[in-house]
Design brief:
This protein is an alpha+beta fold and about 375 residues long. The protein folds into three domains: about 5-115, Rossmann fold, CATH 3.40.50; about 130-145 and about 220-340 and about 350-355, 2-Layer Sandwich (D-amino Acid Aminotransferase, Chain A, domain 1), CATH 3.30.470; about 150-215, ATP-grasp fold, A domain (Dna Ligase, domain 1, 2-Layer Sandwich). About 35% of the residues lie in helices and about 25% in strands. The chain is built from 13 helices and 14 strands. A five-stranded mixed β-sheet has the order 3-2-1-4-5, sandwiched between helices. The longest helix has 19 residues, at about 345-360. It is globular and about 65 Å long. The model is unreliable at about 65-70 (pLDDT under 50).
Length: about 375
C-alpha cells in the first residue's frame, strides 16, 4: 500500500514590503519540493491581504495555472475560528518575509488553527522581527552587541533635538538608523554625521514606530566584515559553516541583496576565511542567539567583525537574527547549508519534519485543568 503523501501548504506573498522577495523564495521551493512525497497546496496573499488558492495563487507568482494543484477543504482562517474543522493540510510552510509574515502575526493564526507550521512560534518570530526586543534578549543572554539606542517615532516628532542629544550622548558616528520591525534592510541608512541624521530618522520612522540607532562597528573608516550562519533545528539546533558577504555597496542594503547583478552584485564567500577558533566561536554564538529568542525550525544569524587593534583579537558582535530568511536557491540560508552538506531539496524535507516534530511536542501541553 502506497504511503499517504503529506499535504503541504506553501504560503507566499503578503502585505509587507518584502512581497516580491517572498514570491522569489516560493518559486524556488515549489520547483524543488519533492512531489512524490508531498501534495502541494499553493496559498498566495496579495499586497492588499486577500488570500488566493490554486490558479489565482499561481497567477500571483506569475506562472501558468494550467498545472493541477491540490485543493484545501477549508481555509486556515476558518479553522482558526473553529479549530475542530479540518483545513485539509498536514503542515504549512509560510514563505513570508517581513511584517505580517515573520513577526508572529500569522504564526498566531496557525496556532489558533492548531496546524503544524515551519519556523519559529509566536514569541521567536516576534522577537526576531523586533530589533529592539531582539537586542534585549541577546543582552540578557550575555551576547556581544554594538552600542545602540532605541527611540519612538512620537519622541522624534515631538522633540527631534532632544533625540539627537540622547543619541550623540551614547553613540559615535557613523551610526546605522533602522526601523525596528522590518527586514531585507528596508529603511536602513548609514549616517556619517549629524547633517544626515534627520533624513535617516524620517525614513526609518515612516516604516515603524520604533527606531533603532546602532553605532558602526570598528568606528570611522572601518568597514567590518559581514558574516552569516544558518541554524536548523528545534530544541537541539545545529549551525552551518560560517559564510561572508562582501557587499557591492557600502553596506548590505536591499539593493545590494536583490537588485544588483553582474559585476556590481555582492559576493558570498563560503566558507568565510576565519581561524578555526573564530569559526567555532561564531557558530556557538549563532546557536546561543537562536535559543535566546526561543526560535525553532530555521534562522539565519548575522555578525559583524572588525579587525583587531594593537595585537588584540578581532571584535565579533552579533548583528541580528532572521527567522524566515530569503529562500531562493541562491539565498545565503540554503547556500550555507548546501556548503555544509545539506541539499536544497533535503533542507525542505528537514524543515517540514521539524515543523511536524514541534507540533507533536506541543500536543503534550495541557491548556486547561
Amino acid at each position: 500500500m502506497a504511503k499517504k503523501k503529506l499535504r503541504v501548504g506553501i504560503v507566499f506573498g503578503g502585505r509587507s514590503g518584502e512581497h516580491e522577495v517572498s514570491l522569489r523564495s516560493a518559486r524556488s521551493i515549489l520547483s524543488a519540493i519533492d512531489r512524490k512525497k508531498y501534495d502541494v497546496v499553493e496559498l498566495g496573499i496579495t499586497k492588499e491581504g486577500r488570500w488566493l488558492q490554486s490558479g489565482e495563487a499561481q497567477q500571483l507568482l506569475g506562472e501558468s495555472a494550467a498545472a493541477p494543484v491540490a485543493e484545501t477543504g477549508l481555509s486556515i482562517a476558518a479553522a482558526a475560528a473553529e479549530p475542530a474543522l479540518d483545513t485539509g493540510l498536514d503542515v504549512v510552510f509560510p514563505v513570508l518575509h517581513g511584517t505580517f509574515g515573520e513577526d508572529g502575526t500569522i504564526q498566531g493564526l496557525f496556532e489558533l488553527a492548531d496546524i503544524a507550521y515551519v519556523g519559529s512560534g509566536v514569541l521567536g518570530s516576534s522577537a526576531g522581527m523586533d530589533k529592539d526586543a531582539m537586542k534585549r534578549m541577546f543582552f540578557a543572554a550575555g551576547l556581544p552587541l554594538t552600542p545602540h539606542v532605541t527611540l519612538l517615532r512620537s519622541q522624534w516628532k515631538v522633540d527631534p533635538k532632544k533625540c539627537v542629544r540622547l543619541m550623540e550622548k551614547s553613540l559615535q558616528y557613523p551610526v546605522f538608523v533602522k526601523p525596528a520591525n522590518l527586514g531585507s534592510s528596508v529603511g536602513i541608512s548609514k549616517v556619517k554625521s549629524r547633517k544626515d541624521l534627520a533624513a535617516a530618522m524620517d525614513l526609518a520612522a515612516s516604516f515603524d514606530r520604533k527606531i533603532v540607532i546602532e553605532q558602526g562597528v570598528g568606528g570611522p573608516g572601518v568597514k567590518p566584515r559581514e558574516l552569516e550562519v544558518a541554524v536548523l533545528g528545534n530544541d537541539e539546533p545545529e549551525a552551518s559553516i560560517v559564510g561572508e558577504i562582501v557587499p557591492a555597496k557600502e553596506f548590505y542594503d536591499y539593493e545590494a541583496k536583490y537588485e544588483l547583478n553582474g559585476k556590481d552584485e555582492s559576493i558570498s564567500i563560503l566558507p568565510a576565511k576565519l581561524t578555526a577558533a573564530e569559526s567555532k566561536k561564531i557558530r556557538a554564538m549563532a546557536i546561543e542567539a537562536f535559543r535566546a529568542c526561543d526560535c525553532s525550525g530555521l534562522a539565519r544569524v548575522d555578525f559583524l567583525m572588525s579587525p583587531g587593534k594593537k595585537g588584540k583579537p578581532a571584535a565579533i558582535v552579533l548583528n541580528e537574527i532572521n527567522t524566515m530568511p530569503g529562500f531562493t536557491s541562491i539565498s545565503m540560508y540554503p547556500k550555507l547549508w548546501a556548503a555544509s552538506g545539506v541539499t536544497y531539496k533535503k533542507l525542505i524535507d528537514k524543515l517540514i519534519a521539524l515543523a511536524l516534530e514541534r507540533h507533536a511536542e506541543k500536543q503534550q501541553t495541557h491548556f486547561s485543568r
